[in-house]
Protein: ceramidase
Organism: Paramecium tetraurelia
Amino acid sequence: MHQTLLLFQLFTIISCYSYLPQLEIDLNAPPKQRWMKAVQTVLELHGYQNSFGSVFAFHNQHSFHILNKDDYDTIAYFLRKNFPEHALELEGVVEALNRPEITFEYMAGWAYFHEIAHVTNQFQECTGVLLSAGDQVIHGRNMDQAPGQGRNLVLHLFIKKDGKYIGEVVDWYWFKGGFITAQKYNVASLEENWRIDKRLTKQSVMLFIQSGLPSLTQSFREVLTNDKLNTYEKVVQYLETHEVGCGLYYIVSGSSKDQGTIITRGPQETIPSLKLNTASGITYLVQTNYDHWEVDPEEDPRRTVAEDLLQKMKINLKNEFGIYAVMNTFPVHNEGTFVTVIMNTKYNRFTTLGQEAITFFDDE
């Protein structure tokens, strides 16, 4: 009887998730070819309108409406000038999409999506959890965005360089050549969350682009591919110091005890990082989209809910299953959650769960 109930619960849980297609990305392949198979996979599974088309239309209205033709031309020019390999990758994406309205200039704008969309400050949901559990750190990540069709862009990617696999990525921003959720094997697990930045302007973003600085999603790609960033400490130092063009939070975990850091960044700020420290009683950290020294907004208590669950967690739940339970509790898991990832760098475990909209459970 107990076994039957357990199996029923397991199948009920599994049925609530969507399959995430898995692909290999070989960074030694010609740049134009690297992302073509990923684009084709999404189109074959979901069609254009139920994937890229809806996402592009939504963000044309809510993010890119602040750009004009001259802005797109400027971004494209400086992307080609400063990052020619990245530009070639985007040319391959444009070719694979094969639609007259999707030009290189348009995709160059997407390369700097986070910096541009921060001007409107409309998108501000994601949750990261770090838990010290014995000699390891467990990292839970919920990626939240809009519109719902963006779920159909989420892929689980195995990144290969010089003939060997260097890490894994689960993301829907891959089509612009970068990532915000990744694990570099034996080194670190990485997550970026949106930080509200009301001082950012289109002019400041354009100056950032013209100065030759890479887009936000290139930071994790640099971590994955740079052989010198081969320890957790070096990764944290890089993410704490490299120049950024918008507000963000980096959540980083390593392969040893207490290797967990939350980094708060902005173009004009240097803020001390938060770190796990079990000796001082800091056994978990939670980051959503608000500065940790501020109280959660009443209408968005994700951090408060997650911290309360972690505080009450029994010793036998201080593991990956326990973190999954936290990540799957409303409102930590909410209407905008595209994907949940549970990462453990000590064992290079990278568990991905494609999330259906939470309205799947509603009575509507």
User: Anything to note?
Assistant: Residues 49-62 form the longest helix (14 residues). Confidence is low (pLDDT under 50) at residues 1-15, 359-364. Residues 23 and 157 are 5 Å apart (CA to CA). Residues 16-359 form a domain with the Penicillin V Acylase; Chain A fold (CATH 3.60.60.30).
